[in-house]
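QUALITY CONTROL LOG
STEP: pairwise intake check
CHECKER ROLE: data steward
CRITERIA: each record must contain a sequence immediately followed by its structure tokens, with no blank fields

ENTRY 1 OF 2
RESULT FIELD BELOW
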Amino acid sequence: MNKNLRIGEVLTEKGYVTEEQMEQALAYQKEHRDKRVGQILRELGFVTEKQVLDALAERLHLKIVDVAQLSVDMNAVGMIQKDLAEKNLLLPVSVQDHNMVIVTNDPLNYFALEEARQQSGCQLEIYLSEEEPLRKAVSYYFAEVSAKKAARQANVGFSTIAAEELEIEDLANSDDEAPIIHLLNSLVERAIKTEASDIHIEPFERETKVRMRIDGVIMEYVTIQKNIHAPLIARIKILANLDIAEKRIPQDGHFRVKLDEGFVNIRVSILPTVFGEKAVLRIMAATSHMDHADHFGMDEYSYKQFLPMLNYPNGIIYITGPTGSGKSTTLAAMIDYLNRNRDRHIITIEDPIEYVYECKKSLIHQREVGEDVKDFASALRSALREDPDVILVGEMRDYETISAALLAAETGHLVLSTLHTTGAAQTVERIIDACPGSGQNQVRTQLAGTLKGVVSQCLIPVGGGVSRIAATELMTGNDAVLNLIREGKTYQISNIMQTAGSATGMHTLNMDLVRLLNQGYITREDAKNYTNNRAELEQYL
């Protein structure tokens, strides 16, 4: 490779940039020496990334690849340092006979490539990739390597230490290089980089397995020695402010960790088992990926039906679905939309706080149950005195919270909340059934006067389980639906959604499953597995 070759020369030869544009880019670079010329040319709008890659591929006889389709050898990844790879976007793919295949976005970054060659001791075969997928791949695979390296180091470091010999004070006060701390940090980082929702730390008789839930599927990740289990759980308890000595009853808590991505909230659940305490860590990263983020995770069709609900000055909107269906992420996207587009005073009541918002057009105050407020119901009552426009309630858990939320909606506030139900009609029934018998008629009346809509969603793995797509059920609070609620005929709601759905902006989950099936996103088996009414689904298939 000609090391005197410059990107400007390549792009000029292809006619993608003019001499004048190159002069502008070079002048700009003098003020921004941390940026390479190719990046500057793209930022100035003179060329596209595709043009740059095509020109480089043709001039240097290199192949452009899709990193998502590559089979990556983790042994190759571990042969160059993480800092070098992340700074320069280098992804080792494979190694054989001292020859390494490596993917880059900038083949003219000779210094970085030479450093990779020296670190690996291999000759390099270079492929090209677009920047963003390459950045994600580098982050993903090097987080994988770091976490497994940390597990190996912890296994070695504690190989001669009995669990009961470790002093809790030592663990709490040790520096960041301590094996247990490094292991936990690496596991969390890996979970975030791979967009895992949960980390499961499960003790068995002779070992402890760490599993991660990625795209709804729990995958075994790494095995650690049994004597590491107790100090690892102790470290988690310390961070979550739980009782370290208590090992007989379940405990719940949360903590925050700081990574390059910023602060990440971790919800902790500790459960005693026959072989020791099991821990489940729910990752609540604000950087979590959401398809159609501007559309609240919905496709264009569902989004256009749902958006008018957020324009109401008052009322209540429920986001429902099973655990792990993305309810909190959808709510966060709705708050973000209001924050960017509306002048509103928004109060959130959460347990724990999952996303931290930066005020834009709206004023946002976040309160955490157990820290800032006693419970959801009392927090709702106090929030009414703070002159809010929008109130987010993390979850409707009991009658007191339901009652307070309906009162807030009646008194001129827009209330957003979640429930663990699998359909719109079931949501209405769940709210009514949660109330004492004597108060159910009143709740029906309140709900009929305030309900603006219910979005029920589930996430279905697609593409071989490497990603998920949302299927939704959307019910709007139109006159027909509200009359059924008022009259106690909620069992007829599904019929209205089926027969008048297209005209009223509503659709059932089965209608959306069939749409996804026809578009090729899911299979018939997927539709049958995720339906909330199999008999009804059969009518569509």
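ENTRY 2 OF 2
RESULT FIELD BELOW
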Amino acid sequence: MKRREFLGYSALGALVLSTAGTMGYALSRQLPHSTPPVGLAPTPLGGEPLQPLPRIANLTETAGRFRSALTPAPHAVPLGDELEARLWLYNGKVAPLIEVREGDELNITLINELEQETTLHWHGVPVPQAQDGAPWDAVAPGESRQYRYTFPAGSAGLHWFHPHPHEGTARQVAHGLAGALLVRPPQDLLPLEVEEHLLVVSDLRLMANGEVAPHTAEDWMNGREGELLLVNGQREPRLDVAPGTTLRLRLINACAGRYLRLRLDQHELTLIGTDGGLIERPQPLEELLLTPGERADLLVRVSEQAEGRFQLASHPYERGWMGERPPHLEQVAPLLAIHTLNSGVHPAVALPERLGRVEPLGEPAVQRRVELTEVMPGHDDHGAGHGDPHAGHGAGHGAGHGDPHAAHGGGSGSGSHHGTHGPGAGHGAGQAGDARPEVDFLINGRAFAMDEILFEGRAGEVEEWEVFNNSHMDHPFHVHGTHFQVVASRDGDGEWREAPWLAWKDTVNLTPYQRLKLRMVFREPGDWLFHCHIIEHEELGMMATIRVS
């Protein structure tokens, strides 16, 4: 199989250069231009040893239970000798880690010490709807809220948590609020000789005084990509290993809008797991595209060369930029330097033939159509000529633009086309100095509204969603409350291609005018969000709700 085909099928991103369509061209010409703030903070030096993620302490000694508190609050964090970043962090820690096992009960109290409301969303974790941390469950400043649930069998994997308040997520993520959640299986299948490292990748844009810079219009249009790229809160940390060491690198892309096109100098990467845990068999990769919200579990056997220096870096990726493209996006961005010591060579590690089991979900009981578009007020082209007149209509529990009642799936709704995000509404909200453009990012022709239900479904039914990216730019698509399987893909006007192997995913990238068929089962009733995981696009409307009964 060709590498291009493998990446497209794998749902970890096809490394294709997307071209700006006519809609993107019109938007880039008509939206107000803004430049990054002047007086950005100096870039701290890298090269320090990689630090493990700081752990959130378990406050109980009872076996099978994890009890603690998470307190988001402002903190000053030294980044190098001359820079102190003023961030918002959980418990004063950059990218803290919660580690549990399948079957454990998690009991977390969120204590909000911010000056704005927040939530705690458990990204990728199969939680009951009341524990999901959705925008309608916001915790006001000075208040607290308890999250409590048990990790079921099959939930092992690397997940994460972040805020999800209505029209406040972008600002809070830009200030550093995010953490890792590692759920271990009853028994790990990988040999003990494998050296494991958790890597949380984030980015910041800091002004000279250490404050987080406000969003620009380009940030809102494209998703914010900060100039300062960090791994576990460090810039270009160093990992010293013996030659021939087998590394397990478990990554979270916790950036708001940055895509990570990962390569490791002179090494092949082996994919062993995705968002929902281990895949069935190792898959060799020359490079990996990791979009915002996604996780990847990688193996690499380090070179046997003594005193070698190898760089894990993110390479430029064209995802359909609107407006002037910042120069730093054209540069290779180093993440982690791997140094091999002058010591004995580690022998190769034998992996089991089968890592996990991903059973196909089978034929769907319900089929739906989901269309992602971006528009300017006064424009009706919703995708610049690539539209499917039937794309908005679900089969069975339909939704779309053709039927004025279908968009509510039979549920509640205001009937407003733009919900709270139409002209003169949500775009004016947010941080002082923000420059929210008059752009709508839509799902099935509608922008998100708190009181609208787009689809209605039933717990336990297999659903197949055909998701169509009817726009000129990439969008990472995330579903709450479940994992899905990508069963087929179609690029532009090409033919449908079945996936050569399956994985459990909760976030998947769609390139311009690409279609994906996703199969999923919602096990828990309630209202579940689905949205673009470029945080700014989500806040400008590319989010919707399915009600499961």
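INTAKE CHECK: passed for both entries
DESCRIPTIVE NOTE, ENTRY 2: The domain at 3-30+359-548 is CATH 2.60.40.420 (Immunoglobulin-like).
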